[in-house]
Amino acid sequence: MTAEPFRSQLAALEQRGRLRHLSPRTGRDFASNDYLGLSGDPIIAQAVADALARGVPLGSGGSRLLRGNAPEHEGLEAKAADFFRTQASLFVANGYVGNLALFATLPQRGDLIVADELIHASAHDGIRMSKATVVFARHNDVQSVADLIAAFRAEGGKGRVWIAVETLYSMDGDMAPLSDLAKVAAKNEAMLLLDEAHGTGVFGPGGRGLSSGLDGRHNVITLHTCGKAMGAEGALICGSRVHIDYLVNRARSFIFSTAPSPLMAVAVSAALDRIEQASDLRDRLKILREDAAEAICAPLGLPAPRSQILPVILGEDSRAMAAAAALQEAGFDVRGIRPPTVPPGTSRLRISLTLNASRADVAALGQELRRVIG
To answer: Nearest to residue 327, comparing CAs of 298, 357, 303?
Structure first.
C-alpha cells in the first residue's frame, strides 16, 4: 500500500512517454558535456596519480568547516581566483550545489531576483529556497529584464536586484547578451549571477568563459562547473572576497556537505592548466561545429550552431524519444530531451559536439538524422 502512490505516478509518466531510465554509455558520443574530451586526459590523470602517490587522501573526512578543509582545496581556490581574475573562489561539490548556495544565500529578504525563464533547474531549486522576490524574464530579452526591475522599483521595492542567466544555455545552445545585461546591471546597481556551466573551457581567452570580458567587476559572480569541458568534477564560485566569505558562513549546501575529495581538487587544478593551453582543442571543436552546420543543420533547414550544443526540436515527446532510440540503435549516442527539462511542445534531440567524436562521425550522424527524421 505504501508504494502505491509512487507506482501510480510512474505509470502516469510512462503513459505520457516521460518515464526515465538509466542507460549505459554506448555508441559515438553526441550526448556528454565532455566538450574538449578531457575526462580521460592523461595529463590530468597523472596529476591525480602523483598526488595519490605523495599521500593526498581520497576522502576529505568531513565538511570544509570541520576537518575536511585540505591544502589542495585552498590551493585550487587561490589558483581559480587568479585564473578567472576575481578576488576569491569557493570549490563546491558540483554546479547544482553551487546554484543552491548562490540563490538560497546571497539574495536577501526584500531583494529581487530577475532570472531568465530558461535558466538551469538547479537555479530554480535555489530560487525556491530564497527569501527574495523572484520574477522570470523572457529568454534573452534585455528589455524584459529592465522592465521587471522598473516595475519592482515602481511598486516600492528598495532591495538589491540580482540578474541571473546562463551564459550559454544548455538545451538551446544560444548565448546570453552579456554586454547589454551588464549595462542594465550597472544602471540599476544590480548584481549579475552568471552560470558558465557550458561556456567554461570552450569560450573566452584561455577558456575562461563567455563572461571573461566582465573580469573583476565587483557586481559579477560566476559559477564555473568542472564536470563539463574541464573533464573533472565539482564547481567553482568566483566573486568578491566578501561574497565568498558570506557563502562560507551562510550557505547551508556548503556548510553541511562533506567536502569534495582533495584528489578532485588536484584534478581541477590540472584541468585549469589544460584549458588555458587548449586553443588547439577549441579550434578542433570549432571545426566540428562548422561540419555540423553543413552536415546536419543545412539539410534539416536549421540555423548554423553558434556553440557546441545543437538542438533539433521535434515537438512531441514520443517523436523525440523514437528518433533518439533509432539513432542509438545506429550507433550514435544522442539523447531525447522532454519536459519538464524543456518547455512543453519543444521535445528535442540534444546533439552535443565533443572531441570524443570525429569529423567523420559528424558527417555520418548527419546522414542518419536525415534518414530518421527526414
So the answer is: 357
User: Which residues does residue 164 pair with via DSSP β-bridges, in sequence order?
Assistant: 115, 193
- The domains located in the chain, with CATH, are 16-36+279-373 (3.90.1150.10), 42-276 (3.40.640.10)
Q: Residue 315 gets which letter from DSSP?
A: E
Q: Which residue from 186, 180, 176 is spatially nearest to 219, judged by alpha carbons? A: 186
Distance CA 336, CA 312 (A): 10
> Prior bond to 340 cis, omega within 30?
yes
- DSSP characters over 54-89: TT--SS--SBTTTT---HHHHHHHHHHHHHTTSSEE
Looking up cell 543543420 gives 297
- Residue 6 CA to residue 12 CA, distance in Å, equals 10
* Dihedral angle of Cα 110, 111, 116, 120, to the nearest 10 degrees: -90
Give ∠ CA 90-113-307 in degrees, rounded to 5: 65
Contacts of 367 (CB under 8 A, 6+ apart): 295
Alpha carbons 321 and 307: distance in angstroms, whole number: 23
Cβ–Cβ under 8 Å, residues 164 and 223: no
Query: pLDDT tens-digit profile of 267-320?
Result: 999 999 999 999 999 999 999 999 999 999 999 999 999 999 999 999 999 999
Over the stretch 87-121, which tens digit does the pLDDT of each residue have? 999 999 999 999 999 999 999 999 999 999 999 99
Name beta bridge partners: 352. Answer: 309
Q: How far apart are CA 118 and CA 141, in angstroms?
A: 11
Q: Which of 304, 110, 295, 307 is nearest to 199 (CA)?
A: 307
* CA-based torsion, 93, 97, 102, 106: positive or negative: negative
What's the CA angle centered on 241, arms 239 and 245, to 5 degrees?
105
Global pTM value: 0.95
